[in-house]
Specification:
3-stranded antiparallel β-sheet; 16% strand
C-alpha cells in the first residue's frame, strides 16, 4: 500500500465549523480536539487505529472482529482458504464503527478509512515483518470499507 494524501473537507464537519465560527478562523482541528475530546476517548481510538491482532490457524484477524464460532462458519463455507476467511472477517465498514458518518460526507469518510488502512498496514508490518498483507480502503457512493488479508504465494 503506497502512502497517498487525501484531502479533508472541513466544511462538512458541522460541529467543528460551529466551534471555528465561535473561536475565529485560526481555530484548528487540534484546537477542536482539545475542546471536545478527552484522554479516555483518545486511548480508545488507539484500538481502532492501532488494533489488537489475533492469529488463528495461520490467519491474522482483528481481535475486535474475531469470534471462533463465526470463524468456524466461514471455514465451513471456504474450507482451508484462510485468505477468504481473513477478507470477510477483517472487512469493516467505517460508517458501522462510528456514528454520524453519514453527516460528514463520503469523501471525508474515505479520508478516515484511508488513514485507518495506512495505520493498519504499519501495525501489521510491525507485528509480522516476514509476512505480506494487502490492506485496502474502498468506497462507493454510500460507504467506505477497510479490510486486510495476507498475500500468500
Amino acid at each position: 500500500m503506497s502512502i497517498k494524501q487525501i484531502s479533508l473537507n472541513t466544511e462538512k464537519l458541522i460541529d467543528f465549523q460551529h466551534w471555528k465560527k465561535a473561536n475565529g478562523d485560526d481555530f484548528s482541528l487540534w484546537d477542536y480536539l482539545f475542546g471536545v475530546s478527552n484522554v479516555e476517548i483518545a486511548i480508545a481510538f488507539t484500538k481502532l487505529f492501532w488494533p489488537d491482532i489475533v492469529e488463528h490457524e495461520g490467519g491474522i484477524f482483528l481481535s475486535e472482529a474475531f469470534n471462533p464460532e463465526i470463524y468456524a462458519q466461514w471455514k465451513a463455507k471456504f474450507g482451508n482458504d484462510i485468505t477468504s476467511i481473513e477478507r470477510v472477517m477483517n472487512h469493516q465498514h467505517v460508517d458501522d464503527i462510528l456514528p454520524g458518518s453519514e453527516q460528514v460526507g463520503v469523501d471525508n469518510l474515505y479520508y478516515l478509512g484511508d488513514a485507518i488502512a495506512q495505520m493498519w498496514q504499519s501495525r501489521l508490518k510491525s507485528l509480522y515483518p516476514e509476512r505480506q498483507f494487502e490492506v485496502c480502503c474502498n468506497r462507493d457512493e454510500n460507504t467506505v470499507i477497510v479490510m486486510f488479508y495476507q498475500i500468500r504465494t
